[in-house]
Amino acid sequence: MTLAQAHRTPPDPAGPAAPPGPPGPAPRPYRARSVPGRIRLVTAVSVLALTVLFGTLFTAAQSVREGLDVIGHDAGPQVVATADLYFALSDMDAQVANVLLIGDEHRLGKGRARALEIYERRRSDAGRAVLQASALAGDDPSERRTVQAVLDGLGRYERLAARALLLDEQAGHPAGPPPAPVLEVYRRATDLMRLELLPMAYNLTLESGTVVRRAHAERSLSVRAGQALTGAAGAAAVGCLVWLQVFLARRFRRVFNPALLVATAIAGMYALTGVTVLGNEARVLEAAKRDGFDSVLTLARARAVGSSMHGDQSRWLLDPERADTYEQTYLDKAQSVLYTPAGHLAAYQKAVAGKADDGPSAFLGLVGQAAARTDLPGSGPAVADVLDRYRDFQQADRRMRELGPRRAVEQRMTRLEAEFERYDAALVKLAELHRASFAGEIRGGEEQIRELWFLLPVAMASTAVLIAAGVRPRLSEYR
């Protein structure tokens, strides 16, 4: 074996290497970076922005509907009914005092039978108001205890009042203070009413009012937040649709896509409409709460306090031993209705006579608060009438206190009764204006939100169809 043979390289058992073949296909690029992938990405972002827009509108509209329902149809009217409970209770006691003061002289004013008829009517009103208060209390243990306490106290009062009326009928006394046994029973009844029942009824109104105030605060915050989110989501949706429009125009050499153009216009108009409507609804909630509900509730309280004042006039004549106390409580209530500084009743009535022509801005108090909204149509003459009637009522009270016992009773049951009825009727008329404004605000808010609610599914469906119609032909070019 030669040296060359010894160093020969052994053959490769795998055989000779195959010649290199043609290059394989290049790796497929990431799908999102392809034209169809980018179209799908931009479309998905646009659809997401539109979903946020319509979802925000749906949530905000639902919150508005619930707020209007609570303030306008549920808790709001029930709270006003609890204020009517105070009026019914105070007028019950005033009518009992009238019956005892009239005695068997039916010629005075409305007479005993008329006073008893009003008493029975107020009993029915009080019963309905307590039922409404119970419904409003729901599962709240504190409010339910208050309602139950009012029911128990009302039962005790009715028993005492019935006994006083029976004893008075048996006594058959002339007009003026009744016999001592009658007066003793009535003192127990009126103390129960003034010191227990009326404060509980007032507290019940305050507690019930927190339902409306809480609902107003929560819904107003929700609507304002929904308005801001709707504006942001609308801007994002329109921006994404414009982005998609520009991308397709550049990539496919087209000036615009008609379907996407219409979808962009719908999204922009609906976002603008949503922001505008939600802003209006926030103002409606505020107006319904402040100018409607608050004013109606304030006037209901003013009417209830006025009835209690009128009862104090009868009690001042009925119980000479407590006359000074009843005169002071009358002054306290009068100043809560229309406040002006005065150290005693005569000074107060003189101040009212001098300021009544100055308008509601001259006073604080319940009527002054409710009359502050002078832009309400018809409120100017109604407020002036309330102030005039209140001034006349106070002047009739002043004249009654200057007369002797016999003539004072006649003044109370005739002239003073007529002046109070005129004042009460003027107060009711002013309250009706605010009730009408309240109902109008609620009705207008519900109509706006109903239109927005009705068009929401239409806008959602139309934008979805238009986006699909605008994008689908472009994607089909890559199949």
Automatic annotation (TrEMBL):
<feature type="compositionally biased region" description="Pro residues">
    <location>
        <begin position="11"/>
        <end position="28"/>
    </location>
</feature>
<feature type="coiled-coil region">
    <location>
        <begin position="406"/>
        <end position="433"/>
    </location>
</feature>
<keyword id="KW-0812">Transmembrane</keyword>
<feature type="transmembrane region" description="Helical">
    <location>
        <begin position="228"/>
        <end position="248"/>
    </location>
</feature>
<feature type="region of interest" description="Disordered">
    <location>
        <begin position="1"/>
        <end position="32"/>
    </location>
</feature>
<feature type="transmembrane region" description="Helical">
    <location>
        <begin position="41"/>
        <end position="61"/>
    </location>
</feature>
<protein>
    <recommendedName>
        <fullName>Secreted protein</fullName>
    </recommendedName>
</protein>
<feature type="transmembrane region" description="Helical">
    <location>
        <begin position="260"/>
        <end position="279"/>
    </location>
</feature>
<feature type="transmembrane region" description="Helical">
    <location>
        <begin position="452"/>
        <end position="471"/>
    </location>
</feature>
<keyword id="KW-0175">Coiled coil</keyword>
<keyword id="KW-0472">Membrane</keyword>
<keyword id="KW-1133">Transmembrane helix</keyword>
